Amino acid sequence: MIRFEPMSGGCQCGALRYHIEAALEGPELCHCRMCQKAHGAPAVAWGTIPAAALVWSRGLPAEFRSSDHAVREFCARCGTPLIFRPDGQGTIDIALATLDQPQDIAPEEQYGIDTRMPWFPGAHLLPAKPSPGRGRTFQHPDHDTPTWP
User: Strand pairing partners for 8?
Assistant: First the structure.
């Protein structure tokens, strides 16, 4: 269990913002095919909290029932995937990259390794370089703002 209270986060465009007032459990890296497709990424980092501990401070997410046992919640404006809500468990998983300070929480387990990309275990060995400057960004900053934009 990791405790960084309170935590906040949101989508890329800023239409959705949330606060968490609970201990984050997990955290895990998921390689399942549903997570890969939902996020357009080889893996997704998640952390679990009680569903009642999530408070939306700006906007409400859209939903997509991705299986017979769970709903995924995302920003209808920019498409950012935020929540995995398993049916009947009283918990939700937060996509850790949507937190304002995701670097503070490292995954402790991996799931779905049967569909993990075969190149993923060696990805850290690839040549590395910093992000290139891409001009002006319209991404919401990693902190709460009174309004946006």
Answer: 19
| Beta strands at 91-95 and 81-86: parallel, antiparallel or unpaired | antiparallel
Q: For residues 134 and 146, what is the distance between their CA atoms, to the nearest angstrom?
A: 26
Cβ-in-10-Å burial (0-12, 13-18, 19+) of 33 comes to exposed
Over the stretch 23-54, which tens digit does the pLDDT of each residue have? 899 899 999 999 999 999 999 999 999 999 99
Q: Which residues of 117-134 are buried (b: 16+ CB within 10 A; e: fewer)?
A: eeeeeeeeeeeeeeeeee
- Taking CA atoms, 94 is separated from 56, 81, 86, 97, in Å, by 13, 9, 12, 9
Asked if residues 27 and 47 have their Cβ atoms less than 8 Å apart, the reply is yes
Report all structural domains of the chain as residue ranges with CATH numbers, in order of start.
7-116 (2.170.150.70)
Strand 7-10 versus strand 81-86 pairing type: unpaired
